[in-house]
Amino acid sequence: MSRVLVPCHVKGTVALQVGDVRTSQGRPGVLVIDVTFPSVAPFELQEIVFKNYYTAFLTIRVRQHTSTHTPAKWVTCLRDYCLMPDPHSEEGAQEYVSLFKHQMLCDMAQVLELRLILRQPSPLWLSFTVEELQIYQQGPKSPSMTFPKWLSHPVPCEQPTPLLEGLPDPSRVSSEVQQMWALTEMIRASHTSTRIGRFDVDGCYDLNLLSYT
Question: Could you tell me the sign of the dihedral formed by the alpha carbons of 107, 18, 28, 10, in that order?
Answer without folding.
Answer: positive
